[in-house]
């Protein structure tokens, strides 16, 4: 600090109004004069206009920041002095590629640990014996041979689909919209796709190992097919058709080379939207049978793994892992970022890992200044998140009118206008999520929410009418904010505790609604035409589906065979099916109705008390099918139901009829015999999972004797 | 086995049980072998479609029942491919405009042109040769203004070999020119007794067992059911089938009606209770979750609003707030149909209803 700033100082020239004389201990006499008030030359840094309070945190932050900037600069200077090319200024790869994880452990999980484990589990289950060329379909192989990974953009779906198979010793072949679906001249698009997929699935990559130890060793790796961006690809229909055929095991080739195709390589499909229904017919005109949109047809063929945004993940560590990942990258790039910057970046990018890394690189290039202000203004527009924040803030130091004018300035002419225009949907959603809290903190009155509803109506209805859209897009909408501000501004700090309304409810709600809508559409279309006509325009969701649900899911007990058979009759009459799928939460197979009525019709937490009914129904339906005597039909009852039967039979439920099982295993039995003549064949053993998901889980090796007992 | 709504659906005009005068008129109409364009309207579950099909049956014979689902492909001006389902028989086709979204104008125009340009060829029928084909348009009130405007010209131009039957719930959305070009047929709700009779008939045919043999008690039980279902015949039949599926013998108690409330109705009644009990921001926040839950289960927002209002009215009894609430609800109903974010308006209604109840 400058000496002049102290209140007392030795005068260098005359002109003091009042002087004091001080005698020091050594006898020297000093003339001191009081410094006139106008001479105050206080450093204004960190002292607010009112001149009373010093904002210590801000000061600290500034110090930290300058320190960091200095370090960064020093670092760059040092690097250039040494002649080393600084990685920051001339990095030729974008960081998202540079830091793309190569293995499972490098992955930034960001709340998707479970999904990743699920994928890995599926891949390891998918044993591919790579020495045995004409591979038989191992009975133990995963139930569904296609994996469907879905979730929002930028959270590592593609990365996982590449890194995990590589780790599981597969060679990844990717098909995506960008390159792989150009048609080969002279061949139709559908045929091209078919050719490419089949080629990818039948070849083994042979590559000379570059490893120093065994330079000349040849390694063969089976391929894993990754189909990216399936839902948005314009050929999704054709791709799904090929996958359908392959998973059913169609006959390939013609003439002599004819053989049955067994899908014995993992296929991973990636989609953003599980319920996409953008293009393509849902009916086949020739057969008159409904086959649904591509995604709808794909869903039953696949194990699905859902990736979620870290924001929506339940565990608190999700965001932390993402932050750690970013910090790690920053330290790799010798970039000093504070933890605050990192969390700012994460919140701005909404948990999108790729966007976060891009963001980091963008600021890394500019010498490492990522203060919260600059990071929120990548395109010199305040981020919507901050707009929402500001809407509920009031500066307590100035009057209401001044505050209001500031807001008005900001929204009508200032940079706020552009932001509002760009993201008004997000802003309004954010405000809507938070305004109740603002009211409850300030004064608990319901008059304000009531008044607000008029303004929300203005926003919603007028924005929706097409003529008003252009006019409204950015100039008038901001009025809603001003109103919001004038109603709800508060000097109190909102921290989200006062009223428990999570940020993601809106998203979760719309997601659920989409899923339920898909279910209802399939109910409508599966139901026989006569019933469909009879029901007509009655509200399906409100009346028809709940009643149908109550008709099928009867109260009562298992012993009530009459009711079960009644329900089974109804299920067949309505054209519904039962199928089993693997439930990742419990680790068991669950039987479910297709379409799943109870998802739509039941509210609250699904305890699923009607499990007995479903299994009873499954038995009943299986019995019916065998009674019809069609062996093919018996096989159509998903083989997996057999497994559930087996398991339930161990729990003391009466044994299902044994005839089907004989047929099924008889089929498998033929193959080993034929192959064993070659000598290279290891006898296929039947594995039975026993109590999977429980503490006494075993994989039992059982032979024919046990099965016949 | 099929659902009772399908199984006991009258196929001919003669089998129709109520609204005899309308049936007679329709019969007279079909006897002439020709009819003008029709606009059939009335509440759901009153029997509009049943009557339309019975009339078609009367005119064309049983061939109308040979239904199949067709897919029509259609390319819009922006070169997008559009597909929609058409239910058709040799003599008619049926479309639902809500399948087509915004393109309903082009689709309808094109479809009608298509139908009109192919003349009906019928060598087999011994009956009077019909030169025309019938197009049934469901939910005609959902047609956009554009589509309706396009219809009015087409209706006249191709009247030589097409006939339109528009089916809708209310005619308030239908533009006057169309109203004037069609013969309006209103199918009102059946009375409670008429529904009761039908349910009784079904009960006899299906041999539904009741725990009492007193026909009086059974009748009052069925009437009660009809009343609970809002005099909606279809809903009463579905509900009756559900009850009889769930109980082998249906217990009839004297005072309480059939115990069949749906989950979402319980939730809405809970919302009404909460509104009446405590009016605070905390309640509002709690109710928001409930609304989200309902919307996630695809319960249409308008139905939520309506049910909530009726619940409130019922619980308030004879109070002078009721008119105010009804006014509010009608306001918000309009907003629901104009806007898209249902949650805003549902919460807005709740907040306003709370304010109205406070004062």
Automatic annotation (TrEMBL), chain A:
> Could you name the Gene Ontology cellular component terms for this entry?
nucleus
Q: Where in this chain does the entry annotate a coiled-coil region?
A: none
Q: Which InterPro entries match?
A: AAA+_ATPase (IPR003593), ATPase_AAA_core (IPR003959), P-loop_NTPase (IPR027417)
SMART domains registered for this protein in UniProt: AAA
Give the span(s) annotated as Disordered.
Answer: 639-658
Q: Domain AAA+ ATPase, which positions?
A: 143-301
What protein does this entry describe? AAA+ ATPase domain-containing protein
TrEMBL record, chain B:
Q: Which GO terms describe its molecular function?
A: DNA binding; DNA clamp loader activity
Q: Out of the domains of life, which is the source? A: Eukaryota
User: Record's Gene Ontology CC terms?
Assistant: Ctf18 RFC-like complex; DNA replication factor C complex; Elg1 RFC-like complex; Rad17 RFC-like complex
Q: Which Gene3D superfamilies match?
A: 1.10.8.60, 1.20.272.10, P-loop containing nucleotide triphosphate hydrolases
* One GO process term, biological-process aspect: DNA strand elongation involved in DNA replication
For this protein, the record's InterPro entries field holds:
DNA_pol3_clamp-load_cplx_C, DNA_Rep/Repair_Clamp_Loader, P-loop_NTPase
Instruction: State the UniProt keywords alphabetically.
Output: DNA replication
Put simply, this protein is called Replication factor C (RF-C) subunit
Give the organism, scientific name: Scheffersomyces spartinae
- List the top taxonomic levels of the source: Eukaryota, Fungi, Dikarya, Ascomycota, Saccharomycotina
Gene designation per UniProt: RFC5
């Amino acid at each position: 600090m400058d000496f002049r700033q102290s209140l007392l100082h030795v005068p260098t020239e005359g002109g003091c109004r009042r002087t004091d004389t001080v005698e020091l201990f050594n006898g020297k006499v000093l003339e001191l004069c009081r410094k006139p008030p106008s001479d105050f030359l206080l450093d204004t840094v960190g002292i607010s206009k009112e001149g009373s309070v010093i904002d210590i945190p801000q000061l600290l932050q500034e110090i930290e920041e300058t320190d960091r900037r200095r370090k960064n600069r020093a670092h760059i200077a040092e690097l250039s002095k040494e002649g080393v090319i600084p990685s920051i200024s001339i990095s030729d790869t974008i960081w998202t590629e540079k830091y793309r994880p190569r293995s499972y452990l490098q992955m930034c999980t960001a709340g998707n640990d479970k999904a990743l484990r699920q994928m890995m589990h599926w891949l390891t289950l998918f044993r591919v014996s790579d020495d045995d060329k004409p591979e038989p379909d191992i009975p133990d192989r995963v139930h569904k041979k296609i994996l469907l990974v879905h979730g929002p953009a930028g959270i590592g779906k593609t990365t996982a689909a590449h890194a995990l198979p590589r780790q599981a010793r597969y060679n990844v072949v990717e098909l995506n919209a960008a390159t792989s679906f150009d048609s080969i001249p002279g061949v139709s698009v559908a045929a091209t796709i078919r050719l490419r997929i089949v080629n990818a699935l039948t070849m083994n990559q042979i590559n000379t190992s570059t490893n120093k130890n065994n330079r000349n060793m040849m390694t063969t790796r089976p391929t894993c097919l990754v189909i990216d961006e399936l839902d948005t690809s314009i050929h999704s229909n054709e791709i799904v058709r090929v996958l359908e055929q392959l998973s059913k095991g169609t006959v390939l080739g013609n003439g002599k080379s004819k053989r049955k195709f067994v899908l014995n390589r993992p296929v991973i499909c990636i989609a953003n939207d599980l319920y996409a229904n953008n293009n393509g017919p849902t009916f086949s005109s020739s057969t008159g049978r409904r086959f649904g949109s591509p995604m709808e047809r794909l869903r039953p063929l696949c194990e699905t793994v859902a990736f979620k945004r870290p924001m929506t993940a339940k565990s608190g560590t999700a965001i932390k892992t993402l932050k750690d990942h970013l910090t790690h990258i920053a330290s790799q790039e010798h970039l000093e970022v504070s933890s605050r910057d990192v969390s700012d970046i994460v919140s701005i990018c909404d948990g999108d890992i790729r966007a976060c890394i891009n963001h980091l690189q963008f600021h890394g290039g500019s010498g490492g200044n990522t203060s919260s202000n600059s990071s929120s203004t990548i395109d010199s527009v305040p981020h919507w998140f901050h707009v929402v924040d500001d809407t509920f803030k009031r500066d307590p130091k100035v009057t209401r009118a001044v505050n209001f004018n500031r807001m008005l300035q900001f929204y009508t002419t200032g940079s706020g206008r552009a932001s509002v225009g760009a993201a008004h949907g997000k802003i309004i959603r954010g405000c809507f999520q938070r305004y109740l809290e603002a009211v409850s903190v300030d004064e608990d009155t319901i008059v304000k929410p009531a008044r607000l509803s008029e303004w929300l109506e203005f926003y919603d209805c007028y924005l929706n009418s097409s003529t008003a859209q252009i006019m409204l897009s950015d100039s008038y909408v901001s009025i809603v904010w001003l109103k919001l501000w004038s109603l709800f501004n508060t000097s109190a700090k909102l921290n989200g505790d006062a009223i428990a309304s999570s940020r993601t409810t809106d998203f979760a709600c719309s997601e659920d609604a989409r899923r339920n809508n898909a279910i209802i559409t399939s109910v409508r279309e599966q139901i026989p035409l006569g019933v469909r006509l009879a029901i007509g325009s009655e509200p399906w969701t409100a009346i028809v589906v709940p009643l149908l649900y109550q008709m099928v899911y009867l109260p009562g007990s298992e012993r009530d065979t009459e009711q079960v058979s009644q329900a089974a009759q109804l299920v067949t009459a309505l054209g519904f099916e039962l199928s089993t799928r693997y439930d990742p939460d419990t680790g068991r197979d669950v039987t479910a109705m297709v379409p799943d009525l109870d998802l739509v019709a039941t509210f609250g937490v699904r305890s699923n008390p009607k499990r007995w009914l479903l299994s009873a129904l499954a038995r009943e339906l299986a019995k019916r099918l065998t009674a019809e005597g069609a062996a093919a039909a018996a096989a159509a009852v998903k083989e997996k139901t057999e497994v559930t039967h087996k398991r339930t039979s161990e729990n003391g439920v009466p044994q299902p009829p044994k005839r089907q099982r004989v047929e099924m295993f008889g089929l498998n039995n033929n193959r080993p015999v034929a192959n064993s003549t070659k000598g290279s064949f290891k006898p296929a053993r039947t594995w039975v999972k026993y109590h999977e998901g429980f503490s006494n889980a075993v994989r039992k090796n059982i032979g024919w004797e046990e099965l016949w007992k | 086995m099929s659902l009772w709504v399908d199984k006991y659906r009258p196929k001919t005009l003669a089998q129709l049980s109520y609204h005899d005068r309308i049936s007679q008129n329709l019969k007279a109409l079909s006897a002439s072998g020709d009819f003008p364009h029709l606009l059939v309207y009335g509440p759901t579950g009153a029997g509009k479609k049943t009557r339309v099909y019975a009339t078609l049956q009367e005119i064309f014979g049983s061939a109308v029942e040979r239904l199949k689902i067709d897919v029509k492909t259609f390319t819009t001006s922006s070169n997008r491919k559009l597909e929609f389902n058409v239910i058709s028989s040799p003599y008619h086709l049926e479309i639902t405009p809500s399948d087509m979204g915004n393109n309903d104008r082009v689709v309808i125009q094109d479809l009608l042109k298509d139908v009109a340009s192919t003349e009906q060829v019928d060598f087999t029928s011994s009956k009077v040769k019909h030169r025309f084909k019938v197009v049934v348009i469901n939910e005609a009130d959902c047609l956009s203004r554009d589509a309706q405007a396009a219809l009015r010209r087409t209706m006249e131009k191709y009247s030589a070999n097409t006939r339109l039957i528009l089916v809708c719930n209310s005619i308030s959305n239908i533009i006057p020119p169309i109203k004037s070009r069609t013969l309006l047929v209103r199918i009102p709700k059946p009375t409670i007794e008429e529904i009761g009779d039908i349910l009784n008939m079904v009960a006899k045919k299906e041999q539904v067992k009741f725990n009492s043999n007193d026909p009086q008690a059974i009748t009052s039980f069925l009437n009660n059911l009809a009343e609970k279902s809002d005099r909606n015949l279809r809903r009463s039949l579905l509900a009756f089938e559900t009850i009889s599926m769930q109980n082998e013998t249906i217990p009839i108690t004297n005072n309480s009606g059939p115990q069949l409330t749906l989950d979402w109705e319980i939730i809405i009644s809970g919302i009404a209770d909460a509104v009446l009990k405590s009016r605070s921001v905390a309640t509002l926040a709690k109710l928001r979750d409930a609304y989200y839950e309902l919307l996630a289960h695809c319960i249409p927002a308008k139905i939520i609003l309506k049910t909530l209002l009726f619940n409130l009215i019922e619980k308030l009894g004879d109070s002078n707030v009721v008119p105010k609430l009804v006014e509010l609800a009608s306001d918000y109903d309009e907003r629901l149909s104009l806007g898209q974010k249902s949650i805003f308006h549902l919460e807005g209604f709740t907040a306003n209803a709370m304010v109205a109840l406070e004062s």
